[in-house]
TrEMBL record:
The keyword Transport does not apply. Pfam families: Cytochrome_B. The chain crosses the membrane at residues 29-56, 68-89, 96-113. GO terms for biological process: mitochondrial electron transport, ubiquinol to cytochrome c. One of its GO terms (cellular component) is mitochondrion. InterPro entries: Cyt_b/b6_N, Cytb/b6-like_sf, Di-haem_cyt_TM. Keywords: Membrane, Transmembrane, Transmembrane helix. This is Cytochrome b. Gene3D superfamilies: Cytochrome Bc1 Complex, Chain C. Signal peptide: none annotated. One of its GO terms (molecular function) is oxidoreductase activity. Residues 1-121 form the Cytochrome b/b6 N-terminal region profile domain.
């Protein structure tokens, strides 16, 4: 792995800036929080530009745009549920407690939480 980091020019550059560079001993959690906020700002700018590129200001295409967004959200939730199901299929101690935590979160839903947990278990 180390040879790959040194041989590849792009990975070598990233390695020299992120891993091998000297860091001062006065780094704190607030400095890391600032880096996290900067990364969140970059993500918001990139997603904002992507959303602006796909924006159509017409009433005829408004429903299609909302339908497209909702379909993407449904696919995202289905992907997350599939990954969680794969995690629970191992049926070890960690997967048991993972399933317990998720079902406990579902029981916190108002009105339908208890029925939803009974349906799943």
């Amino acid at each position: 792995m180390l040879r790959l980091l040194k041989a590849n020019p792009v990975l070598g550059l990233a390695n020299s800036y992120l891993v091998d560079s000297a860091q001062p001993s006065s780094l704190s959690y607030l400095w890391n929080l600032g880096s996290l906020l900067a990364a969140c700002l970059v993500v918001q700018i990139v997603t904002g530009v992507l959303l602006a590129m796909h924006y159509t200001p017409s009433a005829e295409l408004a429903f299609a745009s909302v339908e497209h967004i909702m379909l993407g959200t449904i696919l995202l939730v289905a992907m997350i549920l599939t990954a969680f199901l794969g995690y629970c299929l191992v049926y070890g101690q960690m997967s048991l407690w993972g399933a317990t935590v998720i079902t406990s979160m579902m029981s916190a839903l108002p009105w339908v939480g208890g029925d939803l947990v009974e349906l799943i278990w």
